[in-house]
Amino acid sequence: MEVRTDARAGRLVLVAVTAGALVSLLLGVYGRTHTPTGGAIALFGFGSLIQMKVWLALVTGVLVLAQLVTALWMYGRLGLQVPGRLGLVHRVVGAVALLVSLPVAYHCLWALGFGTYSGRVLLHSLAGCLVYGAFVVKVVGLHGAASPGWLVPVAGGALFTLLVVTVLTSAVWYLGTQGLPPSTGY
């Protein structure tokens, strides 16, 4: 019976990683082949595309840090008693982080495309596409009955790392080089 369980776990990992890789690849191919428009679809009350992207990316970064803390807490790594609703808080914060990141990612791909003109931009483009693939792997791992115990923490760690790289190579870089984005204009 154990061999059958190991085989199911292996298939689930293969399905999760394949699905995540396909999502990442499709995002990258779209971003690279689509002709960037340079314009915004929706600014959500912000004065410019860059202002919207910087602030929503920073909010995503803060939410990702909250994800790290709640994950470490849930896995007993903080030495604190785990409240009963911590898992719910972790899922809600994760869902909000994903929702806040979507307009940023959409505008990156649609308005700017997959950039390769500098090392920072290439790293940002790669990490940005891989973020959503890692998210798919984590979700498949969470919902797969045969999921091995290591899959969700590894996928979550990869997702966290990729999001941090994405925010550092975009919003944090922008603030460090340009300061606060202007409230109007691109």
What does this structure look like?
The protein is an all-alpha fold. The chain has one domain. 74% of the residues lie in helices and 0% in strands. It contains five helices and no strands. Helix 1 packs parallel to helix 3. The longest helix has 32 residues, at 2-33. It is globular, with a radius of gyration of 18 Å. It starts with a helix and ends in an 8-residue tail after the last helix. The model has no long low-confidence stretch (mean pLDDT 93).
β-strand number: 0
Integer-rounded radius of gyration: 18 Å
Work out the helicity level: over 70%
Low-pLDDT residue spans: none
Q: In oligomeric terms, what are we looking at? A: single chain
Counting DSSP H or I runs of 4 or more residues, the number of helices is 5
- Number of separate structural domains: 1
How far apart the termini lie comes to: 60 Å
Largest sheet: none
Order of helices and strands: HHHHH
Overall mean pLDDT score?
Answer: 93
Give a topology summary.
Blueprint (H helix, E strand, L loop, with lengths): L1 H32 L15 H26 L11 H27 L6 H25 L7 H28 L8
Helix pairs in contact: 1-3, 1-4, 2-3, 2-5, 4-5
